[in-house]
């Protein structure tokens, strides 16, 4: 102790670099490269900021040369995570790349096709459950539309900008049949967020049931009850119009048959949940609940 | 006779004035048409947030000055690839990345404007809107809204958007 007291004061400054080194050791360890056998592992070199998935996992998900290694497109298009703290769904979307870099392996495509066929089967099964409640002609058209849907693997020549996007669109082919064109980032979404990818794929297929699309096919759509309940009111489908009801219908049906595990914000309220739990179709059998005087009083107040 | 002569002169003068006026109008119109498109916004609008759908995606091109064109993408998720000279198989220096010039971008925008003026298909209840705004050097605006997936100009827009995004990430190949 006495010796320490005898030390000149500036000797104590030496403590500072020692402390700095001590504090930086954990950081260096955390961000260092180290070898496990012959395999080089990147330990937390990049961390998925959105859901905390270490990149060692992400790299393995992307190891089949989906993208060139020098591309650092690790961020999502949407800045928010798939699940928010209140369990509301965000809209995760991974960016794609230039067409030449998008290579889909047989295995990857087989996995997407499994999801796609499953989505179609589930939608058809759900439709069949409501056969009695939907007008016959509408039912036949809806069933046929889902059966007719086809899917195109990325990159798509007809919509080249889609190669940079993460989800996809539904459009029509030259024979006017529904065709899903996937974005270049969808494969990454399927690898990283399979549940959400399944939901998106189901929603894309279900978009053939959009009210304006059914109107184009000259059938009355069966969604008035649900849309009124959700407060999505549109004045028909005039030429040059944009539609929210298509998103409402496809999101509701996809939630029912391929639940993403989070809540679509539009369905987060109790009233909205009730709208999609018991969807009222045009031929829904008359229920005694409709005679509830309190209900009619509430409706009258609205 | 004199009156007739006077009337003829007045008529001649008037027609001269009219033709001069017409020439001036034609000149103005030609000048306006000759103005290049120097700025463009291409917007693929997403649905309302409450449906958790794909986000709105915008490509903005600015080609006013003589230098490189400025391309910005929103949301900002695509980072440019750093330029690195690479050796091709025949051992000569291969093409390297360079920025898209304003002139090249303006040329692309002119093609886009031509496509926008082509006849279009009608749509109803569109779920994937696309909006394009082209701005000329004199400030005049050409704006069009449509639906993605339609035949016609929306495909040209998709190609232009892809070209601009690719150029902003990889640059333009120059030998």
Characterization of the model:
The complex is a heterodimer of chains A (302) and B (175). Chain A is mainly alpha-helical. Helix content of chain A is 42%, strand content 7%. Chain A has a 3-stranded mixed beta sheet with strand order 3-5-4, covered by helices on one side. In chain A, strands 1-2 form a two-stranded antiparallel ribbon. In chain A, a hairpin with a 2-residue loop joins strand 1 (33-36) and strand 2. The longest helix of chain A is centred in the middle third of the chain and has 24 residues, at 106-129. Chain A is elongated, with a radius of gyration of 27 Å. Chain B is an alpha+beta fold. Chain B contains 3 helices and 7 strands. In chain B, the strands form 2 sheets. Chain B has a 5-stranded antiparallel beta sheet, with helices on one face. In chain B, strands 4-7 form a two-stranded antiparallel ribbon. In chain B, helix 2 runs antiparallel to helix 3 (153-170). The longest helix of chain B is centred in the N-terminal third of the chain and has 33 residues, at 2-34. Mean pLDDT of chain B is 80; it is low at 82-95. At the A-B interface, strand 4, helix 8 and helix 10 of A face helix 3 of B.
């Amino acid at each position: 102790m006495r010796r320490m007291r005898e030390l000149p004061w500036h000797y104590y400054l030496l403590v500072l670099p020692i402390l700095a080194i001590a504090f930086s050791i954990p950081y260096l360890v955390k961000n260092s490269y180290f070898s496990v056998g012959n395999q080089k592992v990147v330990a937390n070199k990049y961390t998925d900021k959105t859901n905390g998935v270490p990149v060692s996992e992400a790299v393995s998900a992307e190891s089949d040369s989906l993208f060139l290694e020098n591309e650092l497109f690790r961020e999502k298009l949407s800045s928010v995570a798939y699940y928010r703290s209140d369990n509301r769904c965000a809209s995760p979307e991974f960016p794609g790349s230039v067409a030449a870099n998008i290579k889909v392996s047989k295995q990857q495509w087989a996995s997407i096709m499994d999801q796609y066929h499953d989505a179609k089967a589930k939608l058809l099964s759900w439709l069949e459950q409501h056969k009695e409640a939907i007008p016959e002609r509408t039912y036949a058209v809806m069933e046929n539309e889902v059966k007719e849907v086809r899917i195109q693997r990325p990159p798509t020549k007809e919509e080249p900008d889609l190669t940079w996007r993460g989800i996809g669109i539904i459009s029509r082919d030259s024979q006017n049949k529904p065709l899903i064109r996937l974005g270049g980032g969808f494969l990454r979404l399927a690898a990283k967020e399979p549940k959400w990818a399944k939901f998106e794929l189901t929603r894309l297929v279900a978009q053939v049931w959009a009210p304006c699309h059914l109107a184009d096919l000259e059938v009355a759509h069966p969604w008035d009850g649900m849309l009124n309940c959700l407060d999505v009111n549109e004045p028909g489908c005039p030429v040059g119009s944009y539609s929210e009801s298509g998103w409402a219908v496809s999101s509701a049906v996809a939630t029912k048959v391929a639940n993403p595990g989070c809540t679509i914000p539009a369905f987060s309220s109790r009233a909205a949940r009730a709208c999609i739990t018991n969807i009222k179709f045009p031929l829904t059998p008359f229920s005694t609940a409709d005679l509830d005087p309190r209900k009619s009083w509430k409706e009258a107040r609205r | 006779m004199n009156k007739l002569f006077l009337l003829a002169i007045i008529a001649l003068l008037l027609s001269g004035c009219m033709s001069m006026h017409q020439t001036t109008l034609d000149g103005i119109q030609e000048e306006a048409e000759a103005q290049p498109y120097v700025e463009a916004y291409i917007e693929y609008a997403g649905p309302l947030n409450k449906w958790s759908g794909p986000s709105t995606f915008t490509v903005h091109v600015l080609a006013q000055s003589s230098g490189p064109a400025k391309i910005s993408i929103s949301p900002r998720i695509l980072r440019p690839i750093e330029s690195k000279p690479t050796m091709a198989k025949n051992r000569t220096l291969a093409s390297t990345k360079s920025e898209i010039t304003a002139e090249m971008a303006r040329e692309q925008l002119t093609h886009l404007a031509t496509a926008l003026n082509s006849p279009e298909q009608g749509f109803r209840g569109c779920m994937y809107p696309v909006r394009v705004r082209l701005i000329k050097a004199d400030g005049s605006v050409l704006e069009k809204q449509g639906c993605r997936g339609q035949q016609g100009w929306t495909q040209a827009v998709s190609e232009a958007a892809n070209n601009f995004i690719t150029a902003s990430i990889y640059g333009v190949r120059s030998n």
